[in-house]
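Quick question: what would this complex look like in 3D?
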Amino acid sequence: MEPIIRTEKLNHVYSAGTPFEHAALVDVDLCAYPGEYLGIIGHTGSGKSTLIQHLNGLLKPTSGRVMVEGTDIWSSKEATRQARFRVGLVFQYPEYQLFEETVYKDISFGPKNMGLDEHEIDRRVRSAAAFVGLSDAALDASPFELSGGQKRRVAIAGVIAMEPAVLILDEPTAGLDPVGVEQILGNIRDYHRAKNATVIIVSHSMEEMARTAQRLVVVNEGRIPLQGTPTEVFSHADELEKMGLGVPRMTRVFRRLRELGADVDPSVYTVDQAKQAVLNALKRKGVV
Amino acid sequence: MALKDITLGQFFPGKTLLHRLDPRAKILLLICYIVALFTAKNLAAYALAFGFLAVAVVISRVGLKALLRGMKPVVFIVIFTALLNILYTTGQGEPLVAFWVVRIYWEGLRTAFFMVIRILMLISCTFLLTYTTSPILLTDALESLLGPLKKLRVPVHELAMMMSIALRFIPTLIEETDKIMSAQKARGADFESGNLVQKAKALIPLLVPLFVSAFRRADELATAMECRCYHGGEGRTRMRQLRYQLRDYLALAVGLALCTAVWLLNSLGVF
C-alpha cells in the first residue's frame, strides 16, 4: 500500500552554527499508511515533537523530504498550505490555544482559513462538535467557561473540523482524569472509524499505546530504533528499558512470571490478553 | 520563525574580573564613569575615558563585534545629534563652510565630534555592565543600592521582586508564543502575508491565548508564593549574599580616581 505520509532521510538541526547546535532528527524514514492507527512513543526530548511538526510543514527539514500523498510538501507554497489542511496537528495541552468568544467560532477558525463557504463551515463545525461529544448548547458558550476536559475537546474539534486525512495528536490525554482519558480516546477512535482517517498518536504511556495503536514507532535520540506491532515492539523490553521507556505493566508482570518459571506467554500487554494467557497456562496444566 | 533565537538581555556568561566584581560595585563604577564622561571638556579627558573603556572591554572578553552590534539601534540618533550640532552651533570667527542658509563653524564640528564620542562611550559602558552581569544580579544590586529609600516608604523590595519575576518569565512567554503560533498555524493561520490591518487582525488568535496564559501563570505564581509564606521583604534573607571584597573597593577607588583625573585634565585646558 502507498503510504499517505513518508519522510525520506529527514534531518533537523536546531540552532545550526551556534554553540547550542543540536541534531534533533537524524536520517528519519517514517511511513504512515492510509487508515492506520499509528503510535509514536519516545522519551521527553527524544525528537518526537520535532518529528510530528515536520509532518504538516510547521518545521522545515534541514535536509531530507516530507511527502504527503505523494507530493513533497516543500515543493511549493501551495503544497505547504495544503499539507497543513491535509495533516491536522493537535498540540500538547491544546486548550491553551482557544481564543474566540464562543466555542462555535473557535472550532470554525480552521475551516474558515481553508476558505470554505458558510454552509460547509457550519456543517463541519457541527459534525466536529458531535465527534467530541459537545452539545449544541455548548457551542454558544465561551470556551473560557468550560472545564479542562471540555476545553481539550473543543480544541481537538477545531482540528477535526478541517477534516484532515491524517490526524496527529501530541499527548492528547496528558493531565486528564481516567474518565476524561477514555472519552478523548473514544472520540479519536470514532473519527478514525467514521472517516477512515490515519491517526497518529504521540504518547509516553505504554498502557495507552498498547490498547489503542495498531503499529508502534519508537523514537530515541532523533532516530527510529524500533517499529512494528505492539507485540513486536514490546518483545524488546530490555532495549526499551534502556531508552527509559519500559513496557506496559501487564507485560512486566508476565515477563517476571516467566522468570519465576511459570509457563506463560510473555508477549501480553492488555488485561484481556493477560486473562487469556493465564487461562491458557492453566489449561495446559489441566487445572481448568 | 524561531522566536527563541532572539537574545533578550545580553548577558554573556564568563569568569573574568569584570564578571566577578560585585554588581553593586559595578553599578557605582558605571555611575563614576558616566560622571567623568559628562564632565570631560577636552581631548585629554576624553582620551583618558576612552582608554579606561578600552581596558574594561579587553578585561571583559566581550569582543568588539558584540559591542558594536549593540550600537546598531542608536546609529540614527547619533547621526541626528551630530547633524544638529554641526548645523546649529554658531561660533566666533569665520564659518568654515557657508552656502545658502548653512553655516558650519569650527566649534560646531568640535561639539559634534565630542557629542558623538560621548554617546558611543556612554552606550558601550552601559552595555558592558549588562553583558557581564546577569539580570538577576542586577536587580539584587539595585535593591541593595536603593535600600535607603525604604525609609522614605519607597517599596524597593517589591519593585526589585517585580523586576526579577518579569525577567524570569520572558523566556517562558517567548516559548509560549512560539507554541501558540505553531498551534494556530496548524489550523491554517497566516501571520506573514497581508497588509498591516490584516496582519494586526491575524495576531488576535495569538494574543488572546497569550494573555490568558500570562494571567493564569501570574495567578499560579502568586498562590505558590503565598503557600511558601512569602510576605514581602521584611526579614527576608537571600540565597546569593552580596558581599564587598577587596577588588570591589579597588574598583570604586579606580572610579573615583577617574573622576578626579578628568577634573584635573579639564583644568589643564588642552584643545
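Answer marked as accepted. Chain B has eleven helices and two strands.
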